[in-house]
């Protein structure tokens, strides 16, 4: 009798709370252990607020990928016939069944969630740690990045109700750890003072062996000085972690290095997540200044947007990337080229999150947007890291639906920059457009580095440009910077100038670049780099070889050859 009354009491309590008496939970994602470089500090306070996001399963990703390749492959009859925003959204929007299932679960648990993506596949809400632990059978704890002292609340595993399987893609941030070093500006040489009388050096190509300026890049890659004419052809530079692009420094840069254009030429500012762009000279950012000075300074006449992403609604790591891609996806007319010089080691993140973000880049690619990312600066050890036994691929370079940009150095001939991150993804398989190039390299590589990399993974980078000794202005002083963060804005400028010519001729912008780059026509317009390597993890890394390699990709661009390759 007592047991019966107890059971009835528990049932009534459960009914009042609106929760079932029993739950069928299924493990959804887990990590083998704490990522290298982090240590456990202890359990998170039960009343600490967590900002969580739910990603619903998208409905027709396979068809999105098929259409992306269809409009991006030069031999296709639909090449350049990019999809509209509505067409992409219709492809990937979650099914009504998924929406209903997740909403019912949220209501059952008294959670008010906000939709944060155009298709409704991302939701956000806040709950205390105690409730998050209950909802997901998780153990949210405080972890510290040993080198930087950065703390993050994460769990090593989480589960979801069985009824949400097939409807709920992932919960973030859970098993994805921040990568403070990977989200620092990707450069390897500190800013240093230099003599101010550099006018003659900046215009003489022979100086390119020691210092890179816009004139050097124009000479090396045949980049035209001719002004772009199409105002609709925009180039976006993304900025994170309070990296501010200084207008006065840009003016000084243009006065020194682009005397043929107005020194007042600048970029437009867009902000997200409470982002800003302080013009205090002491707050000028190396990365932001580098990216804006070399896009404005190389892509003559192309409208440049600087998107400053703040820390609101973020918990470190890749949430800024999520917010950025959702923000741009909502635009009716997104920029034709987006360059980003930040990244993350692939092994610090959830594979589900990596795939979800990669699919978001595919959505933009299908709409005619070229997504460029710097490959990283740690050679085969990832994003500025060196403690490893197996090679560390970076994200999003391993994503097959964006273009990863590595680095070269030197002049006549160019050689691979040893910091140029490259390798093979552990999350993404070799895409069809890359199969021949990667298999040829692995065959030529033989037993070198055997067991240290995934021979069936997507290889990166795809292409490279100069990445060492770039002259920039920071806080009114001239100095030099190294890194693939130099390379990505350089390529972005070249692609933007090609797009300007294409649009002027009544053609579509290039969009997703890789199928074109890996085609015979595209690869023939690049300068093959066959010397150098990218050491790391106690090895010499991968050697550059004829054809594609995981140091410099297919090689470096030649604007004149590319212009011909795109049919102009």
UniProtKB/TrEMBL annotation:
EC number assigned by the record: 3.4.14.10
GO molecular-function terms, A-Z: metal ion binding; serine-type endopeptidase activity; tripeptidyl-peptidase activity
Its biological purpose: Secreted tripeptidyl-peptidase which degrades proteins at acidic pHs and is involved in virulence.
Range of residues in the leader sequence: 1-18
UniProt keyword ATP-binding, yes or no: no
Organism: Polyporus arcularius HHB13444
GO cellular component: extracellular region
Swiss-Prot/TrEMBL catalytic activity: Release of an N-terminal tripeptide from a polypeptide
KW Glycosyltransferase (keyword) present: no
Name of the featured protein: tripeptidyl-peptidase II
Co-factor binding comment: Binds 1 Ca(2+) ion per subunit.
Keywords assigned: Calcium, Glycoprotein, Hydrolase, Metal-binding, Protease, Secreted, Serine protease, Signal, Virulence, Zymogen
Cofactor: Ca(2+)
Positions bound to Ca(2+): 528-529, 547, 549
Residues of the Peptidase S53 domain: 211-568
Single Gene Ontology BP annotation: proteolysis
Subcellular location: Secreted, Extracellular space
Residues annotated as the enzyme's active site: 287, 291, 485
Gene3D superfamilies with a match to the protein in the record: Peptidase S8/S53 domain
